[in-house]
Amino acid sequence: MARIFISPSKYVQGPGELKALGEYVSAYGKHALVIISAGGIKRFGQTLEASFGAANLSFTYDNFNGECSQDEIDRLVAVYQANGTDVVVGVGGGKIFDTAKAVASNVDAPVVIVPTIAATDAPCSALSVIYTPEGQFKEYQFFKSNPNLVLMDTEVISKSPVRLSVAGMGDALATYFEGRACTRSEAGTCAGGTSTQAANALAELCYNTLMDEGVKAKLALEAGACTESVEKIIEANTLLSGLGFESAGLAGAHAIHNGLTAMPETHSMYHGEKVAFGTLVQLVLENADELYEVLDFCVEVGLPVTFAQLGVSDASYERVLEVAQLACAENDTLGNMPFTVTPEKVAAAMLAADAYGRAALAEE
Questions:
Q1: What letter does residue 230 receive in the DSSP assignment?
Q2: pLDDT (tens digit, 9 = 90+) per residue, 325-357?
Q3: Which of 98, 153, 257, 354 is catalytic?
Q4: Could you check whether 11-157 and 162-362 share the same CATH topology?
Q5: Which of 114, 199, 273, 309 is 20 to 30 Å from 8 at the Cα level?
Q6: What is the dotted CATH code of the domain comprising 11-157?
Q7: What's 162-362's CATH class?
Q8: pLDDT in tens, 48-86
Q9: What angle do CA 144, 205, 307 make, to 5 degrees?
Q10: Is 31 a catalytic residue?
Q11: Does 271 qualify as catalytic in the annotation?
Q12: For the chain, what is the largest distance between any 2 Cα atoms, rounded to a whole number of angstroms?
């Protein structure tokens, strides 16, 4: 199998870059379909309209309905076709990005991704996570190319709720360990081949950046300050993790996340918060040396380390085994681990991770 590395065509990060969005988008089309939430329009509508106007760019807003489901994708494809648009712009969070990428792929249009938070590594990838309308994981959809442009306005992102940036750290936390597992098992990656040295190096840099800068960045964000640590964490959450997960591979942590969607109580938790717990579970499965370093980091920045912190009060073996069975589905990524994984092993690792988390919290 070939070694393959993929990435967006362009990545832009810096304060105030949202004001230049129209100029960037005009390189790809003349009439943009802007997928955004009603809250996003309220917060950023004036900036977007001024930016598009300055670039002589037409646009059509459409409010995102809240779930990246096939029904929502199909609805927005119809909106795109009815309005004569020629470029898709997704402004907001992860499910908006994934929907925008899927819509653009369906109509073979360029896509520009504009995160207003740094909560996931979704912006840079050539795939979308598709859910049912009720919010349960359904499938991954893969596309022929990555976004044409990812634009990160760090001034905007640093003003978003701190919990979202911390959730992004949780998502990024899995990158190195999942990539390492895929390299050891020679598993295929989302890029369509096996991992490269470049992808593994980026994944390791992502992890080291979290360990070095994560706590400092959280404290700065709580003070309303966009410091160099914040800039580095935004890049780690988005670019390093995005390139790392896609070209180095997914394994246990994200499969555990997907399994947790079987527990409705967890639907209110952010993607990265569940992935952080999934990372702990993967490290328990591996009996990895980094387990306690990662556990301590999660506690220090406020990522969930127990079922209770995920909103689950009933973590009986039967319920946990149901999660483990879903996580071990043939179309998911637990099979990329470098050893045989069974639902029973995963359930045991989840219960152990919860116990380690409770012990760590008791020591605070």
A1: H
A2: 999 999 899 999 999 999 999 999 999 999 999
A3: 257
A4: no
A5: 273
A6: 3.40.50.1970
A7: mainly alpha
A8: 999 999 999 999 999 999 899 999 999 999 999 999 999
A9: 85
A10: no
A11: yes
A12: 59
